[in-house]
Specification:
single chain; alpha/beta; five-stranded parallel sheet; three-stranded parallel sheet; 40% helix
């Protein structure tokens, strides 16, 4: 059942499953140490464990709706996460839309295709995939059957782009320029570049300008840097405030970033009023209704 978003003022296009609801998995220090050092993830995740924590934060900042991602960076937990996301959406359809995922640990095309089918059957609207955490590039050929199946099922695909802070997996495979080839090969597939693609901002802007089906989502970062000089975001700020205004999405990657801080910083950047509306609500509405 499609939901009515007409009265929504803010839609967060990227939140995580509350840590307390995630399957238990041993996270190696190579995955977590630098994330904690850069983003203070350990403290943030410990302080935001439950669905009530998320809902209270949304309510406090007047965030009407959120897209919850079954994302993971370690282990084979996709099936459990997909069920958890679907259950959250079933219980709170007015507050959440769900995006599923596939197993990347010991990747199997057959298993992944089954998971894509199940995500569609559960009413999830897309897939959230982070290949680089498992040693793969965005345009890895063995990912192509997954992209094809997602396009067939009318599921969007959100892909981790830009820097990752693991200390054992290179980030070259997350360069958003790789989305160009995927978008060329799958012209009817909606792609969401999660985290905005930094430090390859010129490439990110070029790909989005070329492909209207490529959206840029800014979860997991401090928006104030997008409008600051000498941060590498200058090209993005200029283009998102003009010709890319219909391809940008507000996201927090909660609990990595919170709603109060990110909304305050976006509203203080001096974006055109219509662009800010598109970022915070309008573009997400269009995607969720499609």
């Amino acid at each position: 059942m499609r939901k009515n978003f007409d009265n929504a003022e803010v839609i967060d296009f990227r939140v995580r499953v509350p840590p307390g609801l995630c399957p238990q998995v041993d996270v190696p220090d190579t995955h977590s140490s630098q994330y904690n050092a850069v983003l203070n993830t350990g403290e943030k995740y410990a302080a935001a464990q439950t669905l009530d924590d998320l809902l209270q934060g949304m309510d406090h900042s007047r965030v009407d709706h959120a897209v919850i991602h079954a994302e993971h960076e370690v282990g084979d937990v996709a099936d459990a996460l997909n069920r958890t996301v679907a259950d959250i959406v079933d219980k709170h359809p007015d507050r959440f839309t769900g995006i599923g995922t596939i197993s990347l640990d010991g990747f199997s095309i057959k298993k992944a295709l089954r998971q894509v089918d199940e995500c569609a059957e559960m009413g999830l609207i897309g897939l959230s995939i982070e290949p680089a955490f498992f040693g793969m590039h965005l345009d890895e050929k063995k990912m192509y059957p997954i992209y094809a199946k997602a396009m067939e099922k009318n599921l969007l695909v959100a892909l981790h782009t830009g820097i990752n802070y693991t200390t054992h997996q290179p980030m070259a495979g997350e360069n958003p320029i790789l989305l160009d080839g995927i978008a060329c090969d799958f012209p009817d597939l909606t792609l969401v570049a999660s985290h905005g693609g930094w430090p390859w901002i010129n490439e990110m802007v070029a790909v989005a300008r070329k492909h209207p089906q490529v959206y840029i989502e800014f979860g997991g970062l401090a928006p104030k840097y997008v409008g600051a000089a000498s941060t590498g975001w200058e090209m993005m700020y200029r283009f998102m405030n003009s010709v890319l205004s219909k391809q940008i999405l507000y996201g927090t990657d909660w609990p990595t970033m919170d709603h109060q801080r990110t909304l305050a910083e976006w509203r203080d950047l001096g974006l055109k009023p219509q662009v800010l509306d598109d970022l915070l609500t309008g573009n997400a509405k269009n995607l969720l209704k499609s």
